[in-house]
Amino acid sequence: MTANPSAGGGRVELALLLPRMPHPLLCPDASPGVAALAAGYAEARRRIAELKPDLIVIYSVAWHSILGHLLQGDPRPTWTHVDEEFHALGSIPYSFPVDVPFTEAVVAAAGRRGLHARTVNYRGFPIDTGTLVAKRLLDPEDALPAAIVSCNVYADRAETIVLGKAVGDAIVASGKRVVVVAVSNLTSRVFARPVPFDQDRVSSRQDDEWNHKLLELFAEGRLEDVSQLARSFAGQARADAKLKGVWWLAAVAGQHNGYRGDVLAYAGVQGAGCAIVALRPDATAAAQLEFDEDDVDVFRGDRGVLSGGPAPTAAAAPPAPAPVPASSKIAPAKPIPTTSRPAVAPPAPVAAAAPVSTQSIATQSIATAAISTETAPKPVGAYPHARRVGELLYLSGVGPRQPGTNAIPGGPIRDAEGRPLDYDIRAQTRAVIENVRRVLVASGSELSDVLDVTVFLVDMDRDFAGYNEVYNEVFGPIGATRTTLAIRALPTPIAVEFKVLAAARGPA
Amino acid sequence: MSAPPTAAPPGRIVAGVLAPHPPHLVYAENPPQNEPRAECGWEVLRWGYERLRRDYENKVFDVIVVHSPHWKTTQGTHVLAVPEFKGLSVDPIFPHLFRYTYDLRVDVALAEAILEEGRAAGLEMQAMRNPDFRVDYGAIISCHLSRPAWDLPIVVLSSNRAHFDFGNEVGEQLQVRLGEATRRAIEKTGRRALVLASNSLSHRHFTEEPAIPEDMSHEHIYHHGQYLWDMRVIGLMRAGKTRQLIAEMPDFIDGAISECKDGSLTWLLSALGFPEYPGELYGYGTVIGTGNAIVGWVPPVEAK
After folding, report:
1. CA–CA separation, A200 vs A24, rounded Å?
2. Is residue B200 predicted with pLDDT exceeding 90?
């Protein structure tokens, strides 16, 4: 799954890898190596000026987050920063514009791909050295809006790749021409004591040799190959943050080798291996991939430990639920009799009684629970909105009717006398999807948890294209399996209904 | 603040405390310095800090010396050496919980003495003299929770990354020497010091939090193995077996993903001379999955 290319036409114009050291900004003439890096920044700045992009997106491995990923949401962060290590070099005052709507679009895109992300808009929120150096040296007039993304300390390749794809989704949808920047040294083995600048170098010969291997690939534009080499690199050299920055950069930029690459500078700064690499998309440079790491579109990993105890394993508790709205009614889960140890997880909070059915499966510990919610349209029969069985959620058929009013967005397909009416299938489809989302949220899941969708249309010839367009916008990035059927009628005057199977979150 | 003594009694560590720094505790306490407001949360740990403060309110301190995991340095140990700092500390991980206005004084003379003693011990030491520097939130939280009046100057030592860059054993050796140097500096300057190690024990976080951060129905240790490790380490501290704890520290760091990897506790125990008297456990609790213990050591001569 890739970003929907038809949505907005935004694209990555230039991808940059930049070091996180403050020296090129604060003491650009300190050593030949630092001067070379400063010149590399200047060349990158010149290329950006030529491109006249709309936005710069920065991911820095020095901005650490723990609760998912954070994105700067202050429209103009302003402060004076001092590096915690190289404070003697001076201070970095800053004030620059942030593209908050784009940032929020990244948060939404990340959610659709299973990632937890949020914006932070707090006066004085600390911004890391690497991000500030990149912003200042690439855009000294602060004319270019920025979006800034954190690096989750626990995120490994899958999560970082998915984060990059979420940024890519937002870029495409934005219609903007974007420069993307990963702030990361190649290697981070800093000398344990300061070295005189005239003796500065990459501290380890092994690090230096491996850095050169990567730089050869970068120079050939083989960004995805570098990304897929990251684990090997980290096993041999002191990679900066496992080279997550390259994972992210490759994922944002499309996971291919079709770039024109330039290594603008490479030098050791207090032992760290620092490179400035510029990559421009170039169809004529497309090369085949040499490595074969798994691709991943939706993150389904380390989440949901709040209520479930240890990190999920085959024998451990399942992920925790999202907060359940007060208007939801969740029947208490009933563990099915089992011959093994009883479940120790407490039952889900009970807001009100609801029908509960139990089954008897002697050797498994599967719980079932019926779920009804006032946030979704009232059922037209004796059935709940959803039923949880183990780690799966089965949703009853969902139509477009509005909760409370039963109004049908896009209009009904016939009047009270059965006469056909014109209606908007796109509006109906959007309403169906919103109702699906409501039921999922009430059940502790999200749209990104949908596994399989069966769609019923009453007029396939008339409505497929419109329904499919809306469906693709939302479910394209999610990647659920789908079946679309034509049927004669639905019980209410609607044109479309979804039957959904989703992954449940949290303990049953 | 008590005036720094000019003669006897000789400088000494009056008390040492393992004083973890979860911003959640300050958030839940609602002090005037912190912008966010909470209705409850993490009471057992907060009550532990309350009891610690009561026990220490009649002790005379000249300075608080704190070793903070959230000021990480690679090139040696850095020490704050600017007389005053005012500013806003915003936790980069939990900014919705901790945005704290601080106004503090630094005991620069003691800071310089620690720098000198450290260098004499062969350690790389650097003074932090940039007035724009933002004091790290770990140090601020530990100091606030231990002495919220802010009536004493402080000295903050950075956490050197040797554990991460060269291995636990290398990092441990560095912190042992730094603790000894800190003690000598305190003695030579005649300070009566409260010494804080600002770290938790087991340190695997949840990567999500409940909609209401102080919703205690979601709070528990991340993994049972962490709890087992935490209890073992607390048991050693309560039994006065700190040398055995140091011997097991590398395994604890790896086994429990412990924040002791930042060296603060080892530094503290070394500064205290590896006490064989029991540490007083003031509280243990989890904060977003991490294990946190408040443990105080008062040398027997001070306890009389």
Report:
1. 14
2. yes
- Residues in CB range of A32: below 8 A, 6 or more apart: A267
Contact A306 B95 (CB under 8 A): no
Q: Whole-angstrom Cα distance, residue B19 to residue B265?
A: 9
A-chain CB neighbours of B129 within 8 Å are 87-88
What residues of A are in contact with residue B290 (Cβ under 8 Å)?
A: none
Residue B60, pLDDT score: 96
Tokens of A125: 């929120």
CATH code at position A357: 3.30.1330.40
**What is the maximum span of chain A, computed from C-alpha positions, in angstroms?**
90
Interface test with B, best of A26, A67, A151, A197 (most B CBs within 10 A): A67
Q: For residue B291, what are the CA distances in angstroms to B51, B144, B207, B250?
A: 19, 20, 15, 17
Q: How far does A292 lie from chain B, in Å, by closest CA?
A: 29
Helix ranges (H only) for chain B are: 23-29, 43-56, 108-120, 137-146, 162-166, 168-189, 224-238, 242-255, 264-271, 300-303
Rounded Cα gap, residues A182 and A274, in angstroms = 12
Q: Give me the total of CB pairs closer than 8 Å, taking one residue from chain A and one from chain B.
A: 117
Dihedral angle computed from the Cα positions of residues A373, A375, A377 and A380, in that order, rounded to the nearest 10 degrees: 10
What residues make up the domain containing A251?
12-285
Beta bridge partners of A363: none
Number of domains forming the structure of chain B: 1
Q: Parallel, antiparallel, or unpaired for β B280-287 and A272-281?
A: unpaired
Query: B101-118, pLDDT tens digit by residue?
Result: 999 999 999 999 999 999
Helix residue ranges per DSSP H, A278-396: none
Strand pairing class (A481-486; A450-457)? parallel
Residue B289 has which token pair?
A: 């999955």
Residue B24 falls inside a structural domain? yes
pLDDT in tens, A213-244: 999 999 999 999 999 999 999 999 999 999 99
- Note down the domain range covering B80: 12-303
Whether A56 and A155 share a structural domain? yes
Token pair recorded at residue A414: 């016939």
CATH code for the domain of B266: 3.40.830.10
- Nearest to A119, CA basis, from A106, A134, A138: A106
